[in-house]
């Protein structure tokens, strides 16, 4: 691997300056303060409960534009402890937070839970949780660690997408119409993107229509263009050539009935496609290709009421319908075979959240009910003859939950946030000519947490949170069945409908400091997980000479670590450099162990640090940021014995972004990423590959690349 000349200690410069600066002493001036984000609900003046005792990051639409964020991997680029999970064929599938990914991270859009992942095989079928176009988002909130309020799945953390609102594009009052056109290009994937946005307010009615189209190719690795390389099999160093595209539509209409009542409807349609020649899985006698598609549709209605009464000061309820379907088609030339497999999750969701202020108590409580229909179907066509099968039976899921939370301002300095939640879920299955029913599965969970913040002084605050969490098993884990015979023997994957939900106990604590120069946060966390669901071997037999496998609840896993983040207004710390300069940084370390196997947990990412030096001109007409990322090596001692050959080296990256606004109607953004052309491999990309994929050069990331876009508003 190539190494740049950037020194690792540079990643800690931001924190050294902030800690050493006397501005954080008790004698510092206090005329200005960098305040935490405040959420105002009804008559309450307390801040968002999610921020009490937790580490929360918010990325807004302005950040998305300035950092040229095009996909989920870009979104978490500068969030140590958070990574996107991706696959060479199926792309970005989800998010890893503090070593947990997949359905162990809760993902929602406008409060609607996203479909579960489904990937019972390493090839031919894999669904992801990446059916959101980031140009449609107003903000993204990332909560690290457990969160009882979010219910099942919020073990590693929570990702909350909020789609754009009409008012964000309109004047504060009066009739108004706004329109914009955005166009951009990303060299790493040769992707062009275009977004058209139209917003309107007429009387008391606001509306928004947003459409984004993207078309591109495979995301390059360090080897460069894959189109001219036709090497097949394990020796291939380039990624497989691919054509990609997506279309996304967001539509909203909202009407203010009176001062206390607001109603609205929202519609979303996302379609992502990719087709590829799978050279890496092919042989000279058998060329494989793929044609994959993911579609998500949502339509929802909401009602907000702020007519304060005995039960609530604010009520919001919503009813949503969502359908998410992934279809994967694989073609094999040698046997004239076409494998078509799909997974479809259809859901009706009813959700209500209420807020009531009673003296020093802000009570939040709510209820949710989800009715899901889940189906997988496989078509295997050989020489024109088609056979049908399923990996799991057709199933319905009923999910019910309710919660109560109290943000209690106990004193002027101490805030407590106790919360309790009850969940109940049930899977009912139907057997047919393709598969047996395998039985039903149901369970319930009572979880609770306590968050707290205590202001030591005007500049220092202690915070912490402890609680329990759970995750219900998904359809894949409960009911995956597969029986196969090959020349050298037979094997079977047997369902286990008796799986228990995964459980967690978590505690995190830290200290925040802030004043007119900036802020810094240091925290530690410890998470204990039990009943982890993993596939295990049941051994071999005369019937299954290659083994029988199933999912089981295993002994517990422990993940612990430290995180630090902060920002510093350099122009105030060093006035002689002039206005507009800022420094921000973050660092994350985690360690995980599977205590049942007495081995490390491979899903833990290496130590990561990010430092950003920014400049925003006082005129606000232009600005720039240089970001430095350092990731330590993934050492063999931190990897399970069978995967130690995958150990990765440390690397450093330099990114440079800039924006320019020649007029209030026109904005240009540009960025150069991996400026020093570093050759590197991320641990999260390689940790799950098989021992047959020995050519790790294929899993390198792109070298130096750039992105540009322009937005015209009128």
TrEMBL record:
It is found in: Cell outer membrane. InterPro entries: Beta-barrel_TonB, Beta-barrel_TonB_sf, Plug_dom, Plug_dom_sf, TonB-dep_rcpt-like, TonB_haem/Hb_rcpt, TonB_Hb/transfer/lactofer_rcpt. It comes from Marinomonas arenicola. The keyword Signal applies. Pfam families: Plug, TonB_dep_Rec_b-barrel. This is TonB-dependent hemoglobin/transferrin/lactoferrin family receptor. Residues 52-158 form the TonB-dependent receptor plug domain. Residues 228-247 have a biased composition (Polar residues). The keyword Membrane applies. It is a multi-pass membrane protein. Keywords: Cell outer membrane, Membrane, Receptor, Signal, TonB box, Transmembrane, Transmembrane beta strand, Transport. Residues 218-247 are annotated as: Disordered. Residues 1-25 form the signal peptide. It comes from the Bacteria. Belongs to the TonB-dependent receptor family. Hemoglobin/haptoglobin binding protein subfamily. Residues 253-675 form the TonB-dependent receptor-like beta-barrel domain.
């Amino acid at each position: 691997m190539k190494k740049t000349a950037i020194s690792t200690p540079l990643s800690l410069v931001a924190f050294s300056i902030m800690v050493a600066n006397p501005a954080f002493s008790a004698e510092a001036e206090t005329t200005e303060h960098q305040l935490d984000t405040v959420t105002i609900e009804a008559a309450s003046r307390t801040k968002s409960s999610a921020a009490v005792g937790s580490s929360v990051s918010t990325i807004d639409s302005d950040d998305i534009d300035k950092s040229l964020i095009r996909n989920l991997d870009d979104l978490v680029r500068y969030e140590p402890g958070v990574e996107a999970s991706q696959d060479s064929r199926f792309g970005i599938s989800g998010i890893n937070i503090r070593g947990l990914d997949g359905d162990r991270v809760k993902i929602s859009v406008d409060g609607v839970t996203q479909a579960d992942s489904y990937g019972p095989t390493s090839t031919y079928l894999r669904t992801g949780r990446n059916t959101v176009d980031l140009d449609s988002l107003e903000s993204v909130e990332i909560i690290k660690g457990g969160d009882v309020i979010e219910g099942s799945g919020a073990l590693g953390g929570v990702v909350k997408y909020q789609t754009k609102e009409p008012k964000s594009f309109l004047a504060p009052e009066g009739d108004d119409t706004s329109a914009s056109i955005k166009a951009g290009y990303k060299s790493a994937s040769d992707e062009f993107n275009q977004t058209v946005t139209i917003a309107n307010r007429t009387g008391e009615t606001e509306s928004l229509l947003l459409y984004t189209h993207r078309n591109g190719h495979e995301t390059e690795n360090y080897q460069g263009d894959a189109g001219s390389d036709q090497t097949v099999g394990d020796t291939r160093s380039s990624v497989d050539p691919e054509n990609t595209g997506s279309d996304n539509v967001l539509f909203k209409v909202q009407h203010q009935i009176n001062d206390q009542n607001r109603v609205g409807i929202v519609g979303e349609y996302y379609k992502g496609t990719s087709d590829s020649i799978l050279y890496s899985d092919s042989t000279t006698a058998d060329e494989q290709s793929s044609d994959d598609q993911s579609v998500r549709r949502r339509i929802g209605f909401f009602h907000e009421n702020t007519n304060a009464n005995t039960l609530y000061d604010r009520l919001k309820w919503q009813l949503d319908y969502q359908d998410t379907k992934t279809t994967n088609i694989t073609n094999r030339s040698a046997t004239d075979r076409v494998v078509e497999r799909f997974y479809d999750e259809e859901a009706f969701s009813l959700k209500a959240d209420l807020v009531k202020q009673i003296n020093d108590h802000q009570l939040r409580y709510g209820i949710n009910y989800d009715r899901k229909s889940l189906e997988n179907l496989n078509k295997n066509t050989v020489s024109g003859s088609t056979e049908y099968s399923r990996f799991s039976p057709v199933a319905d899921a009923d999910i019910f939950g309710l919660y109560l939370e109290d943000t209690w301002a106990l004193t002027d300095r101490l805030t407590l946030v106790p919360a309790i939640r009850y969940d109940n879920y049930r899977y009912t299955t139907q057997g047919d000519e393709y598969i047996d029913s395998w039985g039903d599965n149901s369970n319930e969970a009572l979880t609770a947490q306590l968050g707290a913040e205590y202001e030591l002084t005007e500049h220092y605050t202690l915070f912490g949170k402890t609680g329990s969490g759970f995750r219900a098993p998904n359809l894949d884990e409960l009911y995956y069945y597969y029986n196969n015979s090959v020349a050298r023997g037979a094997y079977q994957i047997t369902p286990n409908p008796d799986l228990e939900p995964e459980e967690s106990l978590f505690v995190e604590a830290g200290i925040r400091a802030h004043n007119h120069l900036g802020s810094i946060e240091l925290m530690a966390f410890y998470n204990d997980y039990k009943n982890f669901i993993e596939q295990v071997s049941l051994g071999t037999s005369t019937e299954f000479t290659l083994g029988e496998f199933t999912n089981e609840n295993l002994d517990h896993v422990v993940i612990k670590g430290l995180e630090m983040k902060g920002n510093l207004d350099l122009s105030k710390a060093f006035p002689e450099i002039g206005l507009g300069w800022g420094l921000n940084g973050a660092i994350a370390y985690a360690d995980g162990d599977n205590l049942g196997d007495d081995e490390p947990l491979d899903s833990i990412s290496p130590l990561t640090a990010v430092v950003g030096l920014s400049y925003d001109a006082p005129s606000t007409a232009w600005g720039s940021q240089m970001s430095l990322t350092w990731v330590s090596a993934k050492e063999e001692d931190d990897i399970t014995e069978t995967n130690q050959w995958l150990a990765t080296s440390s690397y450093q990256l330099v990114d440079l972004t800039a924006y320019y606004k020649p007029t209030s109607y026109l904005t240009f953004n540009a960025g150069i990423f991996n400026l020093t052309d570093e050759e590197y491999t991320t641990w999260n990309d390689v940790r799950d590959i098989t021992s047959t994929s020995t050519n790790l050069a294929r899993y390198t990331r792109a070298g130096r690349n750039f992105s540009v876009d322009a937005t015209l508003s009128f």
